[in-house]
Amino acid sequence: MPSSLLLVLTLKMAAGLLADRVFGEARRFHPLVGFGRWAGWVERACRRLFFGTNETGMRLAGLLAWALAVLPWVALALWLRTLHPHAHWGVDSALLYFALGGRSLAEHALAVATPLAAGDLDAARARVGWIVSRDTRALDAEGVAKAATESVLENGNDAVFGALLWFVLGGGAGVVLFRLANTLDAMWGYRTPRHLHFGWAAARIDDLLGWLPARLTALTYAWLGDTRRALACWRAQAPAWDSPNAGPVMAAGAGALGVRLGGAATYHGRAEHRPALGEGRGADVDAIRAAVALVRRGALLWLGLTAVLGVATTLAGGGGA
């Protein structure tokens, strides 16, 4: 075993990234699908327990549901590592693989880009509807490209860089904590009448866990793209977004790519005018493909930086057993 903990993490990270690139998302029996069912059962149970209570009661119900949904699996990840002195190798690498969604993200994005490039707007609208929550039925070609590009940039943080950072910080248990918290935010974090108060804890915890990854993701996009424009867009445009994490990620990403994103969109039948993101040309097929390439290069950059830090700490005598 390498003497540096960072080198160990680098090897596990490489294994997880390679598995994601080769195998992609598990087609059957994906753990997150099972987790979604578990979370649904927990939500129903906690709602029955706190049925009819006020705002404070529903927030407490949501916090309890979050703890019951997430923490047992974090504990299980920690326990599995103790079964054998070398169990951490397989456990951590497998958990990172299941948490990553890099190949799936690229496949969904390119499934939009292909019909859009061929002029099949109806097919492109249908496919982008798989990855965004806005109404896509009336989008023009630029609207489809804009939605897909925004999805790649934002989910690059959630499905790739956030998972990698929490893996570095906490190994398999850390990546489980981050990915399940992010999944619950997607399930409960919307400001609908049903989840406005119940999902408060899920949304706030996801914001907290995602704060640092989002800013490192934004820096990664800036580093690998038009750095000056990315940083300027981040500084000027991110504060206008409601989400403290999506704003920096998408503003920096749009600036790095030199495209205009944001603007009007329809969600659940209601039109919303969202702040501008980026500057430059309008979104098109090339913007979708460039966003995919940006996320892929960013993942390799993170792997390389982790390896360099691991080697440096080992040579400096700072590695751990």
Q: Compute the number of strand runs.
A: 3
The helix/strand class is mainly alpha
| pLDDT < 50 stretches | none
Question: Share of helix among residues?
Answer: over 70%
Terminal CA distance: 8 Å
Strand order of the largest sheet: 2-1-3
Fraction in beta strands: 5-15%
Output the radius of gyration.
20 Å
How many domains comprise the coordinates?
Answer: 1
What does the main sheet amount to? 3 strands, mixed
Family: Belongs to the CobD/CbiB family.
Pathway: Cofactor biosynthesis; adenosylcobalamin biosynthesis
GO molecular function, one term: threonine-phosphate decarboxylase activity
Function: Converts cobyric acid to cobinamide by the addition of aminopropanol on the F carboxylic group.
SSE layout and pairing:
Elements: H1 5-23, H2 31-49, H3 55-80, H4 87-99, H5 102-117, H6 121-128, H7 141-188, H8 200-224, H9 227-237, H10 246-257, E1 259-267, E2 270-278, E3 281-282, H11 285-315
Parallel strand pairs: 1-3
Antiparallel strand pairs: 1-2
Helix pairs in contact: 1-4, 1-11, 2-3, 2-7, 3-7, 4-7, 5-6, 5-7, 5-11, 6-7, 7-8, 7-10, 7-11, 8-9, 8-10, 8-11, 9-10
What would you note in describing this structure?
The chain has 321 residues and is mainly α. It is built from eleven helices and three strands; from the N terminus they run H-H-H-H-H-H-H-H-H-H-E-E-E-H. It has one domain (5-315). Strands 2-1-3 form a three-stranded mixed beta sheet. A hairpin with a 2-residue loop joins strand 1 and strand 2. The model has no long low-confidence stretch (mean pLDDT 92). Converts cobyric acid to cobinamide by the addition of aminopropanol on the F carboxylic group. Belongs to the CobD/CbiB family.
